[in-house]
Amino acid sequence: MAKIVGCINTTHVPALGRAIAKNLQQDPYWKPFFDGFPPVHQWLNKVRPDVAVVFYNDHGLNFFLDKMPTFAVGAAEEYQNADEGWGIPTLPPFRGDPSLSWHLINSLIERDFDLTTCQEMLVDHAYTLPLKMLWPEGEVCPVRTVPICINTVQFPLPSASRCYKLGQAVGQAIQSWEQDQRVVIIGTGGLSHQLDGKRAGFVNKEFDLEFMDSLISDPLWATRYSIDELVELTGTQGVELLNWLAARGAVPGEVRKVHANYHIPISNTAAGLMAMESI
Ligand code: DHB
Ligand code: FE
């Protein structure tokens, strides 16, 4: 049977792609963020996942405002990256795992999650850059991947509690996958940030740190907030934390913190990184 080795949550930002392409990881601006990763690389070397299931949100590359699924799961042999209009270098395709994708899709629909299934899916910076930061060596990502896209972009958004339950259902489905595979869960986005409007530049360090702690000690903590409250507390794009919450929900039982890092700002966002494993 498949085993979940733990979960990693990280911020995604297009500008990270340019920093990676130009090898600026030790530049004073980028260093406090990239310095968070080596302990997570060491942990990945120890737990050796075969597959990554990635909760993220698309920013208009694969889904646009005219057709916006609440939850979408990829079921492709591979996932192509493409120019998002940011001018960031594209990355080579990511290998998929159709067997796990279809197992997840069947299990989730059986559990009343009405998904969009995508046999073709372009993946944007929210998918490609976290994977590149976690596996920086080599051209091609060494693990197979399955994308799970949550709408954090166009209202109405799914509630925090619904996203946590989606994560739990994904975790249960992975544990019933009859393959001797090691699976790591990844969540990308956040933490607090707002890119537009009157509150552009808004961050909330106190909330972010409490949210990060809650993922270890009380994972349901953030589900007490409505989407409107989360927007007020974290900014219009801070709601990307829904991906972190779903990823935590997928890890069964209590967890131990492997490593955490928090830094303000990277581009326009409070940047976080957190790895955890089942006790
Ligand atoms: C930025 C973009 C994002 O998609 C995000 O989640 C955070 C920050 C940015 O361009 O600053
Ligand atoms: Fe984003």
Summarize the structure.
33% of the residues lie in helices and 23% in strands.
Name the beta content range: 15-25%
Name the strands of the widest sheet in spatial order. 6-3-8-2-9-1-11-10
Q: Tell me which ligands are bound.
A: 3,4-dihydroxybenzoic acid, fe (iii) ion
**End-to-end gap:** 19 Å
Describe the biggest sheet? 8 strands, mixed
Percent helix range:
25-40%
Structural class: alpha/beta
How many helices? 9
Radius of gyration: 17 Å
- Low-confidence residue ranges: none
N-to-C SSE series? EHHHEEEEHEEHEHEHHHEE
Q: What is the total tally of β strands?
A: 11
What is the approximate shape?
globular
Mean pLDDT: 98
Describe the protein.
The chain is of the alpha/beta class. It has nine helices and eleven strands. Strand 10 and strand 11 form a beta hairpin. The longest helix has 16 residues. The chain is globular, with a radius of gyration of 17 Å. The chain starts with a strand and ends with a strand. The structure holds 3,4-dihydroxybenzoic acid and fe (iii) ion. The site of 3,4-dihydroxybenzoic acid has 11 residues, from loops.
Short descriptors:
alpha/beta, 11 strands, binds 3,4-dihydroxybenzoic acid, three-stranded mixed beta sheet, 279 residues, eight-stranded mixed beta sheet, binds fe (iii) ion, 9 helices
Q: What is the fold's blueprint, element by element?
A:
Blueprint lengths: L2 E8 L3 H8 L9 H4 L2 H11 L3 E6 L14 E4 L3 E4 L12 E2 L2 H13 L5 E3 L3 E2 L1 H10 L9 E7 L9 H16 L6 E7 L16 H13 L9 H8 L6 H9 L5 E12 L2 E10 L1
Parallel strand pairs: 1-9, 2-8, 2-9, 3-6, 4-7
Antiparallel strand pairs: 1-11, 3-8, 4-5, 10-11
Helix pairs in contact: 1-5, 4-6, 6-9
The structure holds 3,4-dihydroxybenzoic acid and fe (iii) ion.
The site of fe (iii) ion has 6 residues, from loops.
